[in-house]
Amino acid sequence: MSLSLADAQIPVVDPGAADGVLSLLWLVIALPLAGAVVLLLGGALARGAMDRWGHWLGTATVAGSFALSLAAFFALLGRDEADRQVGQSLWTWFEAGGLKVGMDLLYDPLNALFLLLITGVGTLIHVYSIGYMEHDPRRRRFFGYLNLFVAAMLVLVLSANFLGVFLGWEGVGLASYLLIGFWQHKPSAAAAAKKAFVINRVGDIGLSLAIALMFATFGSTDFSVISAASSEAGQGTLNAIGLLLLLGACGKSAQVPLQAWLLDAMEGPTPVSALIHAATMVTAGVYLVVRSNFIFELAPAAQTATVVVATVTLLWGAVLGCAKDDIKKALAGSTMSQIGYMMLAAGLGVAGYAFAIFHLLTHGFFKANMFLGAGSVMHGMDDDVDMRHYGGLRKYMPVTFLTFAMGYLAIIGFPLFSGFWSKDKIIETALAENLLVGLCALLGAGITGFYMTRLMLMTFFGEKRWEPGVHPHESPKVMTVPLVVLAALSVLGGVLLLGDWIVEFLAPVTGVAEHHEPPLPALVITTIVVAVVALGVAAAWFLVGRKEVPRTAPTEVSPVVRAARADLYGDQLNDVLVVRPGTSLARGLTTMDRVGVDGVVEGGAAALGGLSTVGRRLQNGFVRSYALSVVGGVLLVVLALLAVNLA
Amino acid sequence: MSLTPYIVLSAILFTIGAVGVLTRRNALVVFMCVELMLNACNLALVTFAKQHGNLDGQVAAFFVMVVAAAEVVVGLAIIMTIFRTRRSASVDDASLLKY
Predict the structure, then answer these.
(1) The domain containing residue A158 runs over which residues?
(2) Which terminus of chain A has fewer CB atoms gathered within 10 Å of its CB, N or C?
(3) How far is A637 from chain B (nearest CA, A)?
(4) What is the ipTM of this complex?
């Protein structure tokens, strides 16, 4: 990356006072939080009423947050462009010596968009869950966890300092753990939840170390303080903070090398996969990088690392998506890959931040749409997730098919659909910054076209390959209406780019980029991207659509396919590099403790005991032998005295 | 006059007492031998008092006598009790208090 310090023009975070509807910002968080508390704790008091009304309460709180977010958004639009940063101090969180950390909120164009995405998509997914979880006896608890997640995610994006971000960061991690393992009677779900939690801990170490380093360097973690002072800090410190933040982002956003948990996380209920593991939580890493732009802009090594990680991940996820037969895992691979695109854009600096957020929003729409569509398909197929057991579903589930198709066209970047605009912009920017990275992104777009077409063909087209006794049917209205809304957003999401609106809207946060001329005219690049995607789609048609899809996965396949089916040996890599050395280390320490420490302590005691066994024979009970030892002792003393005196 | 014979006698008496304690089994005899050693000490103390021409040694001898008297009272009582319970005054028989 050739970003010099000179062309980094990062605006300082300097929020004004909140007024009007913006002073109700805290309520956006408080509503779902109250919902979570009532749903999780109130069940003990009024179980019957909670089970009957709990899901409506959970949905209403998030819908209320959405209404507030919308009002706040329009209030923000009504302000002057220079005046679009609003702060609100709730209370002092803690104070120790020179350190003072406040419970402060920040509202600016960046988190305004996040608020709309989280609460908007969140509301739709809550509505969908009412239908999806209808027959689950623990539905109340499910909605409690979902509300908890939304509240934590809102804390994450609304906090005005990194410690508040960390609070939300851990909160969403907890909610993610609880929801992946929601069906904890399945050992696979419990294991997946644990895996997600542990791998996320690795990333969290990065984030917490970064925060510690910020305290040490700037004496504060407030965005306003750090953004004002970051240009005076040393290059090495900034690079270290940047790399540590990147580690945190890798954990939460499932980027290589901390990617292994995301595919397993699909064990959770499908609405969870849609909300947490596609639309919102996994994009928190992208938010973190964009929010910390005042650090990344001045840390070229961290930026380069971000680009490398993102490029590897976008290809890695795409390859996984090609090989999976589990519809949710294929979509999860695609999520990884798309987040790779966002990270790539975020790593490219000022030129890319706005496009990272743009792609994040459109991806939030179309991926939530497709996950919910996949859930609808599973609903009709008796919770079967194997695409080899689907086929020909378009006639039986027309609404699901049509809405899924909108998401499909959006993700592959079909012209004029939302994904077309956002992905095209990222590839264009990448090509302008670095040819190799740009070509990788282009290749990723082609693979996206391939695996999504494969998924589409295997699910909705071709012959019926259903399990006996399965009668697919369209899902109820409460599930299809959110699908329709999300499908509409997937199609129309591109309007955000009209007249570069999103770029200008975000400029107070992300700064204004100097225009880099791409190596080719934009129209030519767009044509190439569309051509490459078409190539991928054609390849999928050629390899999957033309032929009968076997009901069981063919075993005689090339090594590439075998590697992709095994998650590119991600688990094995973790096993060899971390788990096994860790286990050996723990075993070695145990042995050292048992042999070394215990040996010294217990050995000493045993030696003393043995000596005493011998020594106690002296206490033989015979008075005369005691007398003899007294006499002997006296004789010794006398001899000693004589020896001393005579010498 | 020379005081050496007193010291020699004291040493002889002490040795007899010590050997008696070590070799005899009867508790009463052992006890008498202890008394013999105490009195040998008294003799030596008095001799040295005479030699130095002061009364310190004689005072110490009185102390030893008082302690010996007290000791006899306790010791004989113990021996009596042991004899009553075990029908024996042998010190080797009373060897239960051991490892």
Answers:
(1) 16-565
(2) C
(3) 16
(4) 0.88
